[in-house]
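Troubleshooting: if your tokenizer reports a length mismatch, compare against these two reference records.
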Amino acid sequence: MKSSNNIIQFPATQPDCVLCGSKEVTTREEEISFPMSNRGKEETLHIDIPVHQCKECDFEFTGPDAAKLQHDAVCRFLNVMTPSEVREIREKSGLTQSKFAEVTGIGIASINRWEKGGVIQNPAMDNFLFLTGIPENLNALSTRRQKSSNVISFKQKFPAIEGDVNKINEKRKLFKLQG
């Protein structure tokens, strides 16, 4: 990425041609530019991506590496963690996605999408994820979640909602405010 101090390297994988299937494919680095805007801040991002060209049919294409580089550049522009950084925080804690979701209260689908780059977390969730990377914070959340499992369920606290709906509606019709 030219607009950042971060150095981005991409793997030197040599895919087969997606059009004709040939293994005779070359890869070159090409700069792409695209505009981004966030909270009044506008910038054109410039990143180098791998572009593959088939020697047989002359077809040019990009692959998942290029998409990942573009996604990471957008994350950096938005000042949020990249998918690999989100995954690293969870993995350093030694938790599976399921257990991390349980401890943090974040939906497992969201964690999965953030780690795979399907969507980008908002800044508030990014800050929360960052804080979970501090072991003391994750331990405090775990303890807090264990204590909250002792909460009285809604049905236990409000038994009047259980029962025959018709009877409840009859009582509702009889109710009048005094005043």
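Reference record two:
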Amino acid sequence: MSVSLLAFFAFVGTAFSSKLYVLDISAIDNMSPQDSFETGLALSSLLGIVNRDAPQMFVFYTDVDQSWLQYCQQHWPYVNSSEIVTLSSVDEAFEVMRESFHGAVVFDTSVPSTSNVAATISGVEDLIPVAKRSNALSPTLYDRLSASIATISPPPSRFVSTGRWRTAIDLTGRFNGSETGSSKNDAYRWAIREYVDTNRSPPPPSTFTLTEAPPTQAATS
């Protein structure tokens, strides 16, 4: 069951937006492993943010997702009455929804666990988790959004604005194993102190997921 569909089931009976934005992401499998991972993480976070109060966006990853949308239109009048707006690209999705989030939380590709930490921060702070990669062969999602999104919803004053697309929280270079002997565990310890112990995020286990690893190298941090 897709993330978008879960949002629909969660809000049965909720007042629905007059527009439902749909995006075909099936081409994500044709991306490089890094781009595919980073795009999927950013999109799933965006879906969680924009569908929090009422469903506004639905993605197609397989043919089954199209069938589920048709089911929702047949059985839920407020879905059927919504205007379907097709988005042409991932970048357009972020542009259309730019007022829903405050900027970026940048995770450290050399410490894969920070991608999970960034996903947690995303849900609490309404930020989009992305990575900066200087060695990328083509512009990354972070690069493209930095160049295209000039205005987004005002961030809380504690966030520092850098560039056109605000990097609200930067996790790069923060964790080197000095606390626990493992940069991976240092990142999780920091997240627990900042978000779990302060009751800003539900206590673990919130989810069980693999951390990102480069395609030719296992994550050993």
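Descriptive notes for reference record two:
- The two ends are 32 Å apart (CA to CA).
- The first helix runs from residue 3 to 10.
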